[in-house]
Automatic annotation (TrEMBL):
Gene3D superfamilies: Periplasmic binding protein-like II, Winged helix-like DNA-binding domain superfamily/Winged helix DNA-binding domain. GO terms for molecular function: DNA-binding transcription factor activity; transcription cis-regulatory region binding. Residues 1-58 form the HTH lysR-type domain. PANTHER family: HTH-TYPE TRANSCRIPTIONAL REGULATOR, HTH-TYPE TRANSCRIPTIONAL REGULATOR GLTR. Keywords: DNA-binding, Transcription, Transcription regulation. Coiled coil: none annotated. This is DNA-binding transcriptional regulator, LysR family. Belongs to the LysR transcriptional regulatory family. It holds the Pfam family HTH_1.
Amino acid sequence: MDIAFLDNLLLVVDTGSIAEAARRVGVTPAAIAQQVQALERELGVRLLVRAGRTVIPTEAGHRVIARARNLVREFADLKAFALEDETAGELRIGTITSALLSLLPDVLVAFARAFPKCKTLIRAGTSNELYETLQRGELDVAVCLHPAFALPKAYDWHLLREEPIVVLAPSKLKNEDPHELLRREPFIRYDRSLGGGKQADRYLRSARIVPHELFELNALMAIAMMVDRGLGVSLVPDIVSPLIASLKVAKIALPTPTEPRRFGVLWQKTSPRGRLIRGLLQCADDVLTNTGAGRRSKQKTETTRSSA
């Protein structure tokens, strides 16, 4: 029995969708379906049934899944302990999309050089999704926003960057008053279900600004491109990404200081992959030091194409 098949079965159950599980793993839905069918043949029972637009476990599936979680976790821990004193093994990283499109690629380059024998698995998700996945033992580290609650003592946190929210506007508007822009220009809202979107919404309410809202989406890179195309302005975390370096957009600081969005690395203190996690943290700190993008971004007006 292939442990990876069991791991993907658990992902299907947790997401309720073969297509979503395939997207997160980076394979086709057909490949995931074939893995589930292989498990069903080997175990001699049907594991999943369709319920509307989702899939749910059968009665036998529930029994298998309860044991499968422990098997997957124990196998991963066994492999990690076997390689405890080695610079090899496997590291499962979960990350928010904005980190994956900004800081993380450079960190992974440094990490791959420092640990060439380590296999790195990467899964994207929201901070809440990543925290839940980390709790279930399906991730080793999560690059995410700091939870809004006090962390349990079993977890450790390493801050990577603090990002205040800024007005993102076409570069030709860089010298205008940020509040006036938010009141006057079409508004592209960052998804209010996400941490940065919630911060932006709180700021608008506190400043008593009712924007002329045209769009709402959860992709910061897409928002930057829409601003570059003249579709409006936005209120977003001040991320640093090479992907927006060629865009003609300005980041305009707000007149009232805001609580920054804090993202970093979260992991369980007793993780058997401690050596690899410490190596990842060191690589991240080195990249931040070399690029000057770490800890706290400055609240000032910047125009991209020359600076993002």
